[in-house]
Write a structure and sequence with these properties.
Layout (H helix, E strand, L loop, with lengths): L3 H25 L14 H12 L6 H14 L6 H17 L7 H25 L7 H24 L15
Helix pairs in contact: 1-2, 1-3, 2-4, 2-6, 3-4, 4-5, 5-6
C-alpha cells in the first residue's frame, strides 16, 4: 500500500514545480516596456528558502538544482552560478532547521535575510572575479531589500494557501 507521507511529499514537489512555472511565466512576460526603476523581488528564491526552512523533504536538492538551472538558462544568467549559490543557501537553511530548535517566524526571516544577502553578494563577488560587467552596488542592495521584504508574504502564502508547515517529527533520511 502507498505511504501517505511519501504521496504528500510528491504532491508538494509538484506544487513547487507548478509555482516555479507560474513565477517564470510571469517573469518572462513583457509587461513593462519602460526602463525599470526598482528591481522586483526574487520570488522563486524566497519560495525555495521558505519551503526548505519549513519542511526540507518537500524540496530536495536535485529539484532546487534543476529548477534554478532552468531559470539560469531562461533568464540568460551565467549557467550554474546562481544555481550553485542558491543550493548553498538552501542547504544552509536546511542545516539550521534540522537541529530541533524551534524557530519563530521572525528568527526565520532574519536567517533568510542573511542568506539572501549572502547569495546575492556572493554572486556579485564571483562575477567581479570573472571580470564580468556588474551593475552598481546600489542595484544589488535594492534587490536584497525588496527580496527580504517579500519573504514574509511568500511565507504567509505558503503557509495559508499551500499548508507548508514545519515538520514536527524529523525522520531518518537514510533510504
Amino acid at each position: 500500500m502507498a505511504d501517505p507521507r511519501q504521496n504528500r511529499r510528491w504532491v508538494y514537489r509538484f506544487a513547487f514545480l507548478g509555482l516555479t512555472v507560474v513565477i517564470l511565466y510571469l517573469r518572462l512576460l513583457p509587461l513593462d516596456s519602460g526602463p525599470k526603476v526598482l528591481a522586483g523581488p526574487d520570488l522563486l528564491l524566497c519560495l525555495a528558502l521558505v519551503w526548505t526552512a519549513r519542511n526540507p523533504e518537500y524540496v530536495p536538492v536535485a529539484l532546487i538544482g534543476g529548477v534554478f538551472l532552468l531559470t539560469d538558462f531562461l533568464l540568460m544568467r551565467p549557467p550554474g552560478l546562481w544555481t550553485a549559490l542558491v543550493i548553498l543557501g538552501t542547504e544552509f537553511m536546511r542545516s539550521r532547521t534540522g537541529r530541533g530548535i524551534e524557530m519563530t517566524a521572525t528568527l526565520e526571516w532574519a536567517l533568510a535575510s542573511v542568506t539572501i544577502a549572502g547569495i546575492i553578494l556572493a554572486n556579485r563577488v564571483v562575477l567581479a572575479i570573472a571580470a564580468v560587467p556588474i551593475p552598481p552596488l546600489i542595484n544589488d542592495l535594492m534587490f536584497i531589500a525588496v527580496t527580504v521584504i517579500a519573504y514574509p508574504a511568500v511565507l504567509a502564502f505558503s503557509h495559508y494557501v499551500f499548508g507548508v508547515r514545519r515538520s514536527l517529527v524529523r525522520e531518518n533520511r537514510n533510504p
